[in-house]
Amino acid sequence: MAFTICEKRQSVIDEQGHALVIGGPGSGKTTLALLKSKGILDTLAPGQSILFLSFSRAAVQQILKRCREILSKEEMKRIDVRTYHSFCWDILHSHGRLLGGQPLKMMAPSEEGTRRTQFEGDWTEESRRLLREEGVVCFDLFAAATAELLERSSHLRSWMGRLFPLVILDEFQDSDDDQWRFVQQLSKVTQTLFLADSEQRIFEGSFRPGVRANRLDILKDTIALCEFDLRDDNFRSGDSDILAVADCVLSGKGPLPKSEDVKALKYEYRNQFAATVHFAVAVTLGTLRKRGIEDPTVAVLARSNDLVAEISDILEVSHSYNGKDLRPIPHEIVWDQELSASAGVAMASALEFVSLKTPAAREAMHTKIEEYFLIKKDFCERYGGRGAQTAGTKAARFGKARAKIAEGKAPTKGSPRTLEETLTAIPALAGDPVRDWKAVRTAFQAHDDLKAIFQDARMVRLFRASDTLATALAGRWIERATYEGAARIVRSVLDQERLMGLERDPKGVVLMTIHKSKGKEFDGVILIEGLYSSPFFLKHEAPQYAPSRRLLRVGITRARNFVLLVRPQNAKPLLDA
Ligand SMILES: Nc1ncnc2c1ncn2[C@@H]1O[C@H](COP(=O)(O)OP(=O)(O)OP(=O)(O)O)[C@@H](O)[C@H]1O
């Protein structure tokens, strides 16, 4: 693939000091960082490599994809593309002893989620205590602990400098205070290249504490660096007006270009939603094929996981739109694994209860359901989803039921009781894990409270561990003629898969939240707004709606070729009046 290397890009490649590259969506920041790396890789001494840090495994996958386009196989061995977390963990694992005199242990994110939600008091304080007194380091403290190590040990710092002669920091506008602290230490001993776009700042505020709107100002005030501006470039969708439309949405000001590449599809009533969404996907695939893209990639984006799950259900069955028959559309989902894993564990504990009917299994089931809701609550709080309060209420409901059972009493009303009654009515289990799992899962449709678990547990199939799970559960049945220990088995299989399963590069139609689409690229993008949920603009952000506008811009600019916006008829206009 031939890349344009203009004078500005050449200056970035030649720059020997610290540098900041600013550019909008598709301006080629990642590509430029890799072109610069390519020039250096040959000169590295044995043992040295270039470090490229990003925030999520999904982003790492995106960068690796670009690496494959730009670097040779040999060159790829010398570039270390990592998440901040995995880089920090490696340092803590090897050198953590320097902090408190003992090797550090990592607390698994699932355990941390549960403990955090059950802990009464300040979890941040508690996690600091765990690190200090017990040598246990929680996920959220990885960066802080690494910063402390690098601040304290000049030996470790200079060793890092020798190992990594160039460190590239992706999406630096999203870095938090702790990440900034350790990056500052690295910048003392090695060359750093910061990539950023302030307008793609979508994780600020309640999403991740310590992420600051003025991060780039802080950076420029602290580190002497050369700044390069690629804001006028757009290699992703340069022949279209996709970026122009996205920028209008960002500013809220028109005029909106009359574009063939960005279209809107409206629906009026709730009962038109499913067919409209289905039609939107079909029409986008058709448009892209007509434009000569044989196997188009299409992202279907919504603001919340709930809507993403609903869209998946819609695409799995047939619909009719204005007399046109629409067949099911195969698709993949990028989803939140911890939530579905804990729903799977709750489901497995119900399976245990049905097969054992003991008081202990009964109590354990209510505990696992309570845990699921606590994790959901925590998740909504941390990632900005709605429903934290509802999840909290449901957790309390199951917590109460658990306490009653522990006293030898039964839940008297509400979803815990309905669930127990429905599960008890299930005829004897047959020892066929797939059938038995489905029978138990159906019971979770018996009460509105439990539908979220039903939904999230359906996503367990996405772990692609169904065979492993079925084999493990069948093995347990053969040994004991019960599903005793099913919850533990499910948890351990899913944890394994989570650790192993690097996110693959999805093909065809793929569904995800807008947040998850950041850093990705598709031929077509469909953004979907619900009638009563997942609006494009969140009311509490009025009057300017700046965070929603930034998020929409990120979503729209993932497209190379075509964008379709599906909105209710009476939705708030994209531009201010
Ligand atoms: N110099 C270049 N010449 C030709 N094509 C380029 C160049 N730079 C980038 N591209 C192409 O443009 C697209 C976007 O590039 P890249 O992902 O590097 O942009 P980015 O600025 O990191 O994007 P974003 O911030 O939206 O994630 C890719 O398809 C890439 O191959």
From TrEMBL:
Q: Where does ATP bind?
A: G23, G24, P25, G26, S27, G28, K29, T30
* Location of the UvrD-like helicase ATP-binding domain: 2-238
Cite a single GO MF annotation: ATP binding
InterPro entries in the cross-refs: DNA_helicase_UvrD/REP, P-loop_NTPase, UvrD-like_ATP-bd, UvrD-like_helicase_C
Keywords from the named record: ATP-binding, Helicase, Hydrolase, Nucleotide-binding
For the biological process aspect of GO, one term held by this record is:
recombinational repair
Q: By its UniProt entry, which Gene3D superfamilies does this protein fall under?
A: P-loop containing nucleotide triphosphate hydrolases (3.40.50.300)
What is the protein's name according to its record?
DNA 3'-5' helicase II
Q: Origin organism of this chain?
A: Jhaorihella thermophila
